[in-house]
Amino acid sequence: MRTEETEHRNKDVGGDSSARRAVTVFPLLVLAAGALGMLLPGSFSGWSGAVPYLLGVVMFCMGITMTPEDFRGVVRRPWAVALGLVAHYVIMPGLGWAIAHLLQLPPQLAAGVILVGCAPSGTASNVVTYLARGDVALSVSVATVSTLVAPLVTPPLTLLLAGAYLPVDTGSMVTDILKTVLLPVLAGLAVRLVAGRWVRRALPVLPWLSALTISVIVAVVVAGSADAIKSAAGLVFVAVVLHNGLGLALGYGAGRLGRLGEPGSRAMAFEVGMQNSGLAASLATAHFSPLAALPAAVFSVWHNISGALAAAWLSRRPAAPPAAVSPSVPAGKEPR
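Structure for Bile acid:sodium symporter family protein, as requested:
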């Protein structure tokens, strides 16, 4: 039986056409922002210090879309959520390290690719899972938990895998993730709990606010390394496509090995293969360099394109949804 909160969330759903618009328009916005940063880098000089605050806006929007139902989903299926969490933080960091070695990336780019792999899930995965007729409840639960544990997991993983390329200050990185991710998410969740009726009216606006904010982050990152992009863009694109593609495939395989069924395996594919590239770009800019943030900027565009394509393909294959799960996605789960 559906709870009252679930009913409210279903009312927030804009439907298949709204979800498709979110997945389609967001990469276009990011592409336009990247082109603007490349063509007019001087327009964004001095903006790098604003990136953590911009990310905080995005994470606040994510928090404000959360509901107690997200956390109840974790309690209902702890095994499935734990499998998704372990797969996410093992497969993507490991792939980042392996690809950096395979392609013999320069230290700044290698650290950037690895940092993308160590980031938590991006909430675009929830929308894409919905389009792919996957297990949306599982997707939301894994994305929520991976974000909440990021301060404890991302810094040590980055130190372990990227420390050979560049110095990693884990203490400072933990503090930054707490300030730019966890606190804004908790603040958004608190606002949702206190003023849920008014927040629901604003939910359709939140994905676009997040998309525009992330586009500004991408423009700043690209502008900061515009000269290097001309010589490194091809190599970074290859690394990103490999990273994302293998992540999607291995995530799906982990779901099958864990006997989560077809809908659950589809959710696992997107929860593993799609990353919070906004966080990775912010951390790379603050702790490494604008060049190290380039893989995150490219990933931000590519994983939404590849996710939409994979969802379109999977949606045409049979997948019986779990009996106890409504195949809806919160409209406020903004793409990142």
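The chain has a mean pLDDT of 82.
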